[in-house]
Amino acid sequence: MKRDAANKYWDEELETLPREELEKRQLKDLKEIVQFAYDHAPYYKRTYDAAGLKPSDIHTLSDIQKFPFIDKKTQRDTQGVGSFLGELCAVPEEDVIFISTSSGSTGVPTMSPFTKQDFDEFQDTESRWFWQVGMRPNDRYVHALNFSLYVGGPDVIGAQNLGALCIWGGTLPSERLLFVLKTYQPTVIWTSPSYAWQLGEKALKSGINPKKDLNIKKIIVAGELGGSIEATRKAIEDLWGAEVYDFYGLSDIFGACAAMCEAKNGLHIAENHILVETVDVDTGKVLKPGEVGELVFTTLRKHARPLIRFRTGDVGWIDNTPCSCGRTHGRIHINGRKDDMFIVSAVNVFPSDIEAVIRELPGITGEYLIRVFEKDFTCKYSVEIEKNADNTALDEEVAAMVSGALKARIGVKPYSVTVHPDGELNTRSEHKAKRIIDERKGHGTSL
Length: 447
What we know:
The structure is a single chain. This protein is of the alpha/beta class. Helix content is 29%, strand content 24%.
C-alpha cells in the first residue's frame, strides 16, 4: 500500500486508537496468546497447572497479575529442554524462519525465535518507527548495526519496506563508514549513541565536517541510554547538525519495541504487541502507571515464543497520558538496568544519572568511566573523565568541578575524580561502550 508522504502516521487508525479501544484489542489478544502458550508451550502448561491457573481466568487486563513472572533465568533453564528451541517455544521448529540471540553479557546467550507472521509483524513495526521519526521513501538510510545474530540487524528490512534506499552498513570500520557517508550522502543512520558521538569526533579529526560535508538529517540511536538523556542527545545533535531519536528494543521480543516521536518525551511502545506492567524491583508488587519500577512485558502476538509477564530487568515507568504528537500508545521512560543501579548513602544511582551530568559540563570530552567499589563496608563510586586538549585548567580544578556537579545533581559526590588527557580513557567503541566496572565482592562485572 502506497502511503502519503505528508501523513505523519504509518498506520493512523492503529496509532491514534482511543485508549478504550486499544485496551479492548489488547484484552482480545491477551486471552488468545495465553491460551496458545498454555496449549503449545510445555513450560506454561506445567507452571500454570501447578499454580491452579487457566487461561480462562483472564477476564480483564489486570487479571494477568494472577500469573507468575518469567525472566532471563527462565529462558536459560528451559532453552534446549525437550527440543532445540526449548519449553517456552510454542511452535514446531519447521515453523520458525529466524532466530536472534542475546549478547550473553549476563549469562548464557538466549535465542529469540520468529515465525513468518512474527517476523513480518516485527518489520511492519520497524517501518512504523522509521516513519514516525520522519523517514520517507526518498531517504537514503545506513543501517550501521551488527548483523551477527543481533535482533536489531533485520530492522533494515523495515526501512526497505517503507521504500527508503537502504545501505546495509553493519559494523564497518569507522574510516570505511565515513567514506560511505561522504560518498553516498545518506540522510539517515542508526547506530549506538556512544558511537554516533565517536564517529562525529573521528570525522572532525579526519577533516570532515559532519554538518557541512555530510548529509545526515536524522540519527537513530539504540542499545544504550544516551538517546534519552537530553544532554547526550543534544551533544550529538550539535556535533552532526541532525535530529537524534532514541529507539528501545529487546532481543527477547524484537528489534525496536518503542521509539521517540517528534515530542521527544519518552518512547511510544507498540502496545498492540506488548502489554506493559511496572512492578516493584524487590517485591514484584504491581505499580500504577507513572510509578518507577521494573518494566514487565507480555507479548500479545508473538507465537514462536510467547513471553507472559517477562521481567525485562529495565527500570523505568510508563506514561499513558496523551502525547502532543497525537499517538495514543503509551510512552516508556528508561532509567537504567536493574543490575547497573548501585546505592550510595541511601541514594539510588544509575549510570545514566552520571552521564547526564558529564555530557553537559564544559571543558571535558564527555567520555567517562565509573568504578563501583566497597570501602569501610559501604558502597562508593569513582569517576574517570577526559579533559579537552585545549582546556588550560588544572586537573585538580576540573576534578573539583565534576565532583561538585555530580553532588549537586544526584545527591552524592564521587569518592574521587580522575582526569585523563583527551583520548586516553579507552572507553571509545564502535559498538556499546563499556563504562562501568563493578569491583565489589560478588560482582566483578564490566558493563
